[in-house]
């Protein structure tokens, strides 16, 4: 064995084991971008959910319900109920059908849509 030579891995094997600094930066960059995209998607979902329960959107849905006359006793009471609290808006929007939305409001505000009569 020649003197001065180190026994062990060859230079090419050592080189293969070493990680290229550009590869490390590339991998780290991709991880950061992946996390950024995940956070962005979460933010978009939150904004969409918030839009569904925003007062403007809920009032628009209320105004489009069949039989609702703007500024009638039913409409005014429903507006007050929906504007008062986020939970009220969420409850209202949770119902998929128009009939269920109307029934929910009639029950919560105590006024029937037809005739503006008080429910007992």
Characterization of this structure:
- This protein has 120 residues and is an all-alpha fold.
- The protein folds into two domains: 11-51; 55-109, no CATH class.
- The protein has six helices and no strands.
- The longest helix has 32 residues, at 21-52.
- The mean pLDDT is 84.
Q: Helix and strand string, N-terminal first?
A: HHHHHH
Q: How would a textbook summarize the main sheet?
A: none
| Spans of at least 5 consecutive residues with low confidence | none
Helix/strand structural class: mainly alpha
Compute the average pLDDT: 84
Give the helix tally: 6
Secondary structure layout plus pairing:
Blueprint: H1 11-17, H2 21-52, H3 55-63, H4 73-84, H5 86-94, H6 98-109
Helix pairs in contact: 3-4, 4-5, 4-6
Q: What labels describe this entry?
A:
120 residues, mainly alpha, 2 domains, 68% helix, rod-shaped
């Amino acid at each position: 064995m020649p003197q001065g030579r180190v026994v062990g891995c060859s230079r090419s094997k050592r080189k293969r084991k070493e990680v290229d600094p550009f590869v490390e930066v590339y991998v780290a960059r991709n991880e950061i971008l992946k996390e950024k995209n995940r956070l962005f998607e979460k933010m978009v979902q939150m904004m969409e959910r918030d839009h569904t329960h925003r007062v403007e959107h809920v009032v628009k849905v209320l105004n489009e319900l069949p039989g609702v006359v703007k500024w009638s006793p039913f409409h005014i009471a429903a507006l007050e109920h929906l504007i008062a609290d986020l939970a009220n808006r969420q409850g209202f929007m949770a119902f998929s059908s128009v009939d269920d939305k109307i029934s929910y409001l009639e029950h919560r505000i105590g006024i029937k849509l037809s005739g503006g009569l008080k429910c007992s």
